[in-house]
């Protein structure tokens, strides 16, 4: 089921047929360097547990560019406890996480188009007041991409994410409608 299209980018709901794609992408050390960690490669069982569970509040999607599956994106409504942790008291706040799994599509502006398109979808379709992300502070390429998309660093999150055996500092980044 197609959620939206913006030019050459399409985002559709994750399907059963996507399990081999996720397994391929999430066993690639280049992808894992930035998403999940190289010490945490996925096999089909781990893909099933992590992407096909019953977390109904997470909307999992496949990203297509010119009709080819190239990546993954998910979005979710931020729940009250996490809102408080992040310092929000009100508003319709969505979080997003994404990666381009086909590394040949990196550094071409596709991630920027994807993030801008998802933000627009969430604001227009889901009536988001804010869209937030919490990338690792050391991921300069991602931080630059998100800033190009209109996100701003709003809160330092020390030792926020376990990645490759160590807790990493992250930035809470926000796009405000």
From TrEMBL:
Biological process per Gene Ontology, one example term: response to antibiotic
Keywords carried by this UniProt record: Antibiotic resistance, Transferase
Domain N-acetyltransferase: 9-177
Ribonucleoprotein keyword on record: no
Pfam families the record matches: Acetyltransf_8
Gene Ontology MF annotations: N-acyltransferase activity
Protein name: Aminoglycoside 6'-N-acetyltransferase
Record organism: Salinibacillus kushneri
């Amino acid at each position: 089921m197609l959620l939206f299209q913006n030019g050459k980018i399409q985002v559709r709901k994750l399907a059963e047929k996507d399990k081999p794609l996720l397994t391929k992408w999430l066993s690639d050390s280049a992808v894992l360097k930035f998403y999940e960690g190289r010490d945490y490669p996925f096999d089909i069982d781990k893909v099933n547990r992590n992407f096909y569970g019953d977390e109904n509040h997470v909307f999992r999607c496949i990203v297509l560019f010119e009709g080819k599956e190239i990546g993954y994106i998910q979005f979710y409504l931020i729940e009250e406890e996490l809102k408080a942790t992040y310092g929000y008291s009100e508003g319709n706040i969505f979080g997003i996480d994404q990666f381009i799994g086909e590394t040949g599509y990196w550094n071409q502006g596709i991630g920027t188009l994807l993030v801008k398109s998802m933000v627009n979808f969430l604001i227009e379709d889901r009536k988001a007041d804010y869209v937030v992300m919490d990338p690792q502070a050391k991921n300069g390429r991602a931080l630059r991409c998100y800033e190009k998309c209109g996100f701003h660093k709003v809160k330092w999150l020390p030792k926020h994410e376990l990645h490759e055996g160590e807790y990493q500092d992250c930035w809470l980044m926000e796009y405000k409608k």
